Amino acid sequence: MTKTAAVDALSVSGAYPAVDELDGTLVFRLGYDGAAFSGFAEQPEGLRTVAGEVRRALETFLRRPVDLTCAGRTDAGVHAVSQYVSIPAHAEELAITHARWMRAMAALLPSDIALNAVYHARPGFSARFDARSRTYTYRIVTGDARPLLTRSVTWWHRLPLDMDAMERAAACLVGEHDFKSFCKTSSAIDKPTCRNVIAVSFERASALGEEHIAFTITGNAFLHSMVRTIVGSLVEVGAGRRDERWLSDALAACDRRAAGPTAPARGLCFMDVAYDEGALTSCP
């Protein structure tokens, strides 16, 4: 059987109700290697995006147009292990089993996107607007030895970093603040820039035998390039180029010029999204 024939065999058969006759919401938990994507959100023709690939796979399987909503739009080069995407669904689509979804998406999605789980939610549920918090982790390798097996998911910073100083500096970020200093300037024009950071933490960790510093941040939502600019600013402190109090001053300035550089995209990973208890039920 050809791949096309296999996909057709997995696809939903029969006629569907009108698009506005919706019975619930399908929610997909995805992971992806962001290296070859121009971000999550669809872009002008010719640019490869996560949303574009996922939409095409779902439309092929369901044989209808779909409207994707994601928990957070990651930038070009940023990775994810738990990105959530929702689409309004008909009763027939809600009856598709988890095993069938996994087989179909394995056949239809490119190798740098993986479907991890499928859930059901109430009609009108939104992966974006119903999210209570989002968590990102940024990984930095320090020292003279270039990372090898983790080079695509870490930032190699040759100079040593004072992790304790970075952690003390980051404490000022917790709470509700105007984070205009830490977002892309063009994205802040005539838009609200206040966000609530719930927690920040640092740890020394290891992956595939390679040591790194992991900075994890949880907030209700994030601005364009906010986490990467925070990391770039914290590295200024960790490298001794700025003192710990400088980060608080940069935050208070509400001016992008007051903060540090934006860290490379490859070190950032979208780790998790929190929803109200019971909002999602596992697809059987």
Output the keywords.
284 residues, alpha+beta, 11-stranded mixed beta sheet, 7 helices, 29% strand
Beta strands, count: 11
User: Element order, helices and strands?
Assistant: HEHEEHHEEEHEEEHHEE
What is the count of DSSP helices, taking H or I runs of 4+ residues? 7
Distance between the termini: 27 Å
Which segments are poorly predicted (pLDDT under 50) over 5 or more consecutive residues? 1-20
Radius of gyration: 21 Å
**Overall spatial form:** globular
Strand content: 25-35%
Largest β sheet strand count, sense and barrel closure? 11 strands, mixed
- Mean pLDDT metric: 92
Helix content: 10-25%
Helix and strand composition category:
alpha+beta
Describe this structure in words.
With 284 residues, this protein is α+β, with helices and mostly antiparallel strands. It is built from seven helices and eleven strands. Strands 1, 2, 3, 4, 5, 6, 7, 8, 9, 10 and 11 form an eleven-stranded mixed β-sheet that branches. Helix 1 (3-10) packs antiparallel against helix 4 (98-108) and helix 5 (163-170) packs across helix 6. The model is unreliable at 1-20 (pLDDT under 50).
Compile the SSE list and pairings.
Blueprint: H1 3-10, E1 24-32, H2 50-62, E2 69-70, E3 79-89, H3 91-94, H4 98-108, E4 113-121, E5 133-142, E6 155-157, H5 163-170, E7 175-178, E8 194-207, E9 210-219, H6 226-238, H7 245-253, E10 268-274, E11 281-282
Parallel strand pairs: 3-10, 5-6
Antiparallel strand pairs: 1-3, 1-4, 2-3, 4-11, 5-9, 5-10, 7-8, 8-9
Helix pairs in contact: 1-4, 5-6
